Structure formats: C-alpha cells, structure tokens
Amino acid sequence: MSPKSNPNASTTLPTQSKQSEFSLVEVDTGSSPAIDDIPHTKASGLIKSTEVWYADGDIILRGDSTLFRVSRRLLTKNSRIFEDLFDIPQPDVGCLSEDSDDVMEGCLVIQVFDPPDHLEGFLKGLYDASWEINVNTNHNLRLAVGVLEVSSKYEAYPLRERVISWLASVYPPTISAYRKRWETWSKNPSERYFDPRNITLVANAARVSQALALLPAALLHYLEKFGSDFSAIIDAHDAGLALGSDRYEADLPLLTRDNLSSILKARSRIAFFARRDIYGFAFYRFRKAMCPRGEEEECLRGKREWVDEVEKGSPDGWFSPLVGQELWEMEMCSVCEKAAEENVELKLQMLWERLPGMLDLLRWDELERTSRLEAPPDSGPE
Ligand SMILES: [Zn+2]
C-alpha cells in the first residue's frame, strides 16, 4: 500500500507493513517518563519521547501513544515517503484546537503505525549519522530489524544501508565472517544465548524489505538450526497456513513463503554438495589411498565410523556442512587429514559462493548491490 493512495494521507501514514508482524519487540520504549511529569500531555495519555523531542522541531510524529517532535526538513531530506507526504498541503494548525490530539505546542501531530521503539531508532538514526545499534544481543538485534523495516518503509535509503551493515555482523556475506560471528555476541548472561526466533525475524524482514544480502547466511542458519527434521518444518508451516496466520505459535518459527521455498530447495542441494564435494573423501571410498603403508585399514575405518556417526543423526541425508563436523573427530592418517583439511576449506568456500544459487537467489555481488551492502574484504578462511 502506498501512502499516495491513502485518502487520509494528510494526517496518517499506512498501517505497519506486513513484515512487522514478525516483530517480537515490545512496543514500550522503556525510556519514556511517567505521564504525570509531562505538562502538555492530554487526557488521551500521550507521552513525549525523552530522547527524540527537539524544541525546534515543527512536526510531531505519533507512534501508538508516544510522540516525537522532529524537523519536517530532516524527514523530507532523508525519506522519499515523507517528502511526498509533505508535498500534500497540511491542515492549518491555527484552525485546529490545541485540545485535540491533532496539534500540540503549535505542531501538527501525524499518526504513524510503527512501534514506538522502532520509530525512535529510525529518528535517532536520521538525526545522528554516527548513531549505531551494536547487534550483539537479542534485544538489539530485534530493534535493528525494526529500524530496517521502518527505514525501508519510508525509503530512507542511507539509514537503511547502515542498518543492513549492522545486521550483517550476524548474517555476513562471507563464510569466514559467518563462522566468526558469535565471537562478538553478548557477554551479558541474560542475553548470552541467541534466540533462534531471531533467525526468522531477520530472514523474513530481509526478504520483505529486499535487504537480500542478509538472506543466504540467515537461511543457512535456519537450516543449520532446524534442517534436521524436514517433516517438522513442513508440518509447522502447514499448520500456520491452515490457521491463516504467520504468527502461529509453532515449535518452529515460520518463514515467509519465499523463504520457505528457498530453504526447501537448498536443503537437498547443500546436503548433496556436502556429501559429494566437501566430505566426499569420507563418504566415497577412493581407489588410490594416500595413506602411508600399513595405515590404510585404520584410516579407512576412522572415516567410516565418522560417516556412520553422521548418518545416525541424519536419517534423510541432511547434515549441516558447518556445524559439528569437526575433522579431528575423524581418525585418519596424517596424510589424509592434511588433504581433508585443505579440501574442506576449499569446498566450503565454494559452497558459500554457490549458496545464493542453491537458495534460488541472485549471485552474491548482485545481492550486495540490491541491498547496497559493500562486502568487507574477505580475510579468507581461518
Ligand atoms: Zn589415510
């Protein structure tokens, strides 16, 4: 829905777009002062934001019951949607009663339908080009997704690019960064464990708001986390679909249809690549063993036992090529081990390059271009 088609566009903006239904963030900004402390709040219980309230602001945005006083020029300069909105003649503030909710302190109040904390992050980001959310806790990650949604919805592109780069610290465009991403995750005990619902939160928001460079890593993470039980994925999505809701409280957090389609296709492609290319030296017996004389049998047995172990946990063939497949658990001879290490690193890199294609997405460079995300220089596998 475009705000241009909204008959009430002079005082309202479109309702929160669909992707925000995935939001897990509470709407309370937590930083607003008690209502009694505020002189200008009215009977309707409106609360001024303590962080985004500029005395020289000439417009007030209202999200739920929180008010943000900001500069119309700043919004116009940074957001194509607000630029269009303010092109439409606004009601004359002088004709509106200060007793109504439509005007306060001489400023027109515009109702928007974004959660106040997301809106607050959006406005802070517009006001301060150096403002940043460190995406190293569940709370901050959810907030950043909210700001991604709001900045995409209002077409505030420079801020959107910044938010995508913050989120890319968790879902990066390189495999080396993907493997190292938890090194900077929270040291705070209450936030130490990554909430797996955030995988779908990011993946679904990235899909809907076209921040596509985040998708391969997020969807691979989904498969790593939930991919072992194919029928559970299907059942959860079927049940969600039958109830007509993407908020269905399933054991598995639900993906959007496009994301679901991507992972269902990629799952067998990844498993096949992992078996044939990455760990082919173990799954398939090679005629020419490289093992030192006398160690062939033991080396072969080590590989076979490792394969048996993998197969036990993967009744239908899926296993994550990245998680829990530690090579040192495979008791090979030193020659095979060295060759295996090199092969696994090389082929994992190849898997990463092909991952977008396996997910039916564009190539990495195209994804980065559509998301306007510059890939950081790859330091290569560790
Ligand atoms: Zn060997």
UniProtKB/TrEMBL annotation:
Which PROSITE patterns does the UniProt record give? BTB
Disordered: annotated span = 1-26
Compositionally biased spans, kind Polar residues: 1-22
- Report the residue ranges that make up the BTB domain in this protein: 57-135
Q: What is the protein named?
A: BTB domain-containing protein
What organism is this sequence from? Cristinia sonorae
Lineage of source species: Eukaryota, Fungi, Dikarya, Basidiomycota, Agaricomycotina
